[in-house]
User: What shape does this take?
Amino acid sequence: MNLLIDTPPDEVAIGEAVYPIGTGFRTWVLFELLMQDDSVKPVDKAVAAIDLAFPYGIDGEADAKDVIKAIIWFYKCGRTDKERKLANDNSEKEEDDCYEPHERAYSFDYDDEYIYAAFLQQYGVNLVTVRDLHWWEFRAMFKGLDHNCEFAKIMGYRTAKITSDMSKSEKNFLHKMKSIHALPMSQKEYDESNALIEALKNGGDVDSLLKGRHS
Assistant: This one.
């Protein structure tokens, strides 16, 4: 799939059948938020994701694994993991997605105003009133936000690594920006952080906690 020469899809293949899928960016913003919600059980997430992705329904006999695979394929804008790795290897810009276990650069929930302002400023697109913006088009525009816009700067602060070769003023600035623009922790992240702090205080099993956080 090449966005420059192909029309973004409005249906997906599941087994031998083809089903229309929700294409609007709002559907997939909700999907990403759903996947990040630790209060929802995995089985409930799967059911809710199917309802979101297929507003017209699907055959009840469709294989559940194939259904979820089709949803993830569409969410990733048709890019396979291999294609995404090759793209990242040839680019200085790294993208943060909810399905990747590294530090989040953004939150559709917490950063809604910044994202709205960035799209309006750079593209003249009002995300409140726009009707038919395809998810794949939205993601392409999201990736293309100018690094000088406020939202892109904030994402940079969140993901920037503070290194030993930085000056004291640079370190202090990044610490301050990371603190100002830190994303709220989920309950799971909050509990894990507290458990780690207690382990450090009381000589607990820190190694197992760290492994659990990255498993």
Q: What stands out?
A: Confidence is low (pLDDT under 50) at residues 90-101.
